[in-house]
Amino acid sequence: MSWRIVVITDCAKLDYKLDYLVVRKVDQVTRVHLSEIRLLLVESTAVSMTSRLLCELVKKKIKVIFCDEKHDPLSELTPYYGSHDASAKLKRQIGWSGETRQWVWTEIVREKIRRQALHLKARECGAAAALLRGYLHEIEDGDRSNREGHAAKVYFGALFGLDFSRSQECSVNAALNYGYSLLLSAFNREIAANGYVTQLGLFHDNMFNPFNLSCDLMEPFRVLVDRAVYDMELKKFEHEEKMELLAVLNREVVIDGKRNSVANAVKIYCRSVFDALNEQDISRLKFYRDELSIYADHGVF
User: Fold this and answer.
1) pLDDT at 295 over 80
2) Residue 81: pLDDT over 90
3) pTM to 2 decimals?
4) Which of 126, 135, 170, 288 is the S-S candidate for 253 at Cβ 3.0 to 4.6 Å?
5) Facing residues of 65 across strands?
6) CATH domain 86-297 topology
7) Is the pLDDT of residue 236 over 80?
8) Which neighbouring-strand residues pair with 31?
């Protein structure tokens, strides 16, 4: 099972040799077996890579993220076809009924708001947590009343202050956006690996967004980034802070009764979503649990 997150921060040449990623720098050469790599983050723009290496990374379904000159994620390497039966999967995806998509989206929104409420409870924001708990009982099919949007306003205001806005330029938003982009890449990888396309979403339907489905599925996982950013008490957002957010993918949660890294939980969760959609059965959905779930276990939520 792949587990390494490899980050390239300096000028280097990356190539492939005998199933190894070879990182060549002026004063050293490092080799990492491809079977061990889950994610390759190319943080520096002073990096060159051979096409042979790129092909092997794609074949082995290793997620590759490229950063811009500000060291922020800009693009990723995604295969055209992630599954041998991708054509059949695409037909199935196009055929998902509007009713089934609504059912699944409703459960995703419900889980996201529940996790936000648990997070607020852990931060001793009791009044805001209670308000979100009330929203859980008001969610309609497809979230027609936009409880998700109302919950987000209350949630971020309680965490970061009533003057905080997700549109303002600040270290907190920079960290949130960075963390969310890493999560998005993880979901893009699993969707493609399962033979589906990221453009066709359940709820998100922006013609300019190539990752509509990924944006739908990642919603309950955003709280993991929110928690990490809150704990940082940010005064700046630079390389060290970015590595802390990257480490979120290796944290442990419980899903399907077993302990898994967040990256593996994304894989299990995505497959459960596809099962629910294909079988029109929301009971197939599998959400992760973590230490915040203690509140749910004790009947608080």
Assistant:
1) no
2) no
3) 0.89
4) 288
5) 41, 76
6) Four Helix Bundle (Hemerythrin (Met), subunit A) (1.20.120)
7) yes
8) 22
